[in-house]
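Form 7-S
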Amino acid sequence: MTVRRILIIDNEQRIRELLRRLLEEENYSIKETASGSEGLTNGLNERYDLILLNPLLPDQDGFDICRELRKFKHTPILMISSRAQEKDRIRGFEAGADDYVSKPFSPRELLHRIRVILDRTRHREELQALPDKRIKLPQFVIEENHRVSNGKERVILTQKEYDLLYYLAENPNRVFSRDHLLRCVWKHEFVGDIRTVDTHVKRIRTKLGTLSSEAMSVIKTVWGVGYRFEIVE
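Output:
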């Protein structure tokens, strides 16, 4: 079995030591750094299966690090922060984080969240090994590797953005409530505010908007209900 590699970016030595001990007991391979700039360089230049990121770093804003990583990589990012307010969690998701855990955290819960993310990644890698799983649409093509392309431009989605877009595109012109999307896309791993669906839709629209205005508008809001993926020939 391939050993999963995890990068820890956190300026708190106590937290890094705790995370390293916890994760090495689970047989993960760990790289750690207290520097945001060094963590960003590592994240961009090396392959990791997961990045644990403190968004409140003294030398470089962790939210900016997350956004920069998202420009080039689809490595899952789990933020671990001392700030637990809803606005901070939403800011993390908007920056591109796949999950957000507040300090102090439960080691058992953290391990569970990590396993869920890595299992989802492994499943996605298995799907990518299968025959063509692309969805070809008039506005763009949803590719297997978390990318969406219109033939000229390409954008990279986070895993959850990709899962949500793929689910909606597989079921065009159907209206889905937020509760339904949470059950079918997030499944048992969801913990938090139902409005996380809105946040992810907003991020998807923004990224698709770099392809074209038509691509940006494929996900329609059905007021009082949820969302619908509209195919326009």
